[in-house]
């Protein structure tokens, strides 16, 4: 379902030693006894999803859609990016959701954003989905303080039935608040970290509310779970991708540029950056994840990638089939001198551009990986996101890193809280 190509020779990477290491990582993952094994709930989550849970998600999404015009999803990091990635990839560029919109808040701190959001929804019926695994993250908590007040001022007691909470089963301020108010609650499983949570209620409720087929998304993830679980180094693209990027890192290529010609995948790239950056960037090591959308960024960062410091490798998400296409037509006077392209579709143009860019960057000293996926729909996105989560585990373990914690994010939080005189800091 996903094919990984590489400008070098994979067999050179897969030395006997490397195969041994990969094998023991594989065994630790599936026996769930490696480092961080208490956060492996995502590994067999798709196949373990129960029908009543999925029905609850779909019914709640229907209820939200039937009584509202807008769902505001409040969350940050892994409690935001998965849903945002899938919704952005699937919704049309314009007239995004003519009858129902999903909007986001709490993923930054901006008074202008929140004021303008409240003004924008004033003549629309509104529901909220607050998502925070810890239930204590400052940015979503702040946004919720304003939006909860807005809902109560506007709807009175009815606000309580328009607010949906996704958080830990037992702990956190949000959990307590939801209990007090009687908000409908969904649980973020203990053993699933934020950046691995897109197939839990964290991602599924906003995606279903946006009108997309969560069953197909889960089916894609389930097939990936099944097909990528074998230790077959020739066939398993997740292990191949993890092994290749690790090898490149060892050769001094410390930055990975994730490129795509599909603008709608922009937030899949953002999701990928959190996944790999937060999983691997520890103990003064790890590949730094960067992203570009082509051909746009060929006209800006393209110069650096071709010719700048040689510590980059590039990995492309290549989509085989376009969602819609246009064919270049012949023009009588050829004033724009584009008749040489007549008969070519814009998707074919991009596939050719991929080959050209890849050749040029390779000759400039940038190794090339291709992650080929058939198309962008719910099923293939489910497959792709699971593929990246699994690859990330292999890649981080190859570095000797626990992929599932993020101790580094506490330092800046402590520094901010001290300045803000938060009690206890
Ligand atoms: O879901 P929560 O607990 O609000 O956390 C949001 C994000 O913040 C982080 O904890 C980093 O501070 C991420 O790991 C996480 O995805």
From TrEMBL:
Keyword Glycosyltransferase: no
Main location: cytoplasm
Pfam families in alphabetical order: PGI
Keyword Isomerase in record: yes
CDD domains documented for this protein: SIS_PGI_1 (cd05015), SIS_PGI_2 (cd05016)
Pathway: Carbohydrate biosynthesis; gluconeogenesis; Carbohydrate degradation; glycolysis; D-glyceraldehyde 3-phosphate and glycerone phosphate from D-glucose: step 2/4
Subcellular location, record wording: Cytoplasm
Swiss-Prot/TrEMBL keywords: Cytoplasm, Gluconeogenesis, Glycolysis, Isomerase
InterPro entries recorded: G6P_Isomerase (IPR001672), Phosphoglucose_isomerase_CS (IPR018189), SIS_dom_sf (IPR046348), SIS_PGI_1 (IPR035476), SIS_PGI_2 (IPR035482)
Active-site residue numbers: 278 (proton donor), 413
EC number: 5.3.1.9
Family per similarity comment: Belongs to the GPI family.
Function: Catalyzes the reversible isomerization of glucose-6-phosphate to fructose-6-phosphate.
Protein name: Glucose-6-phosphate isomerase
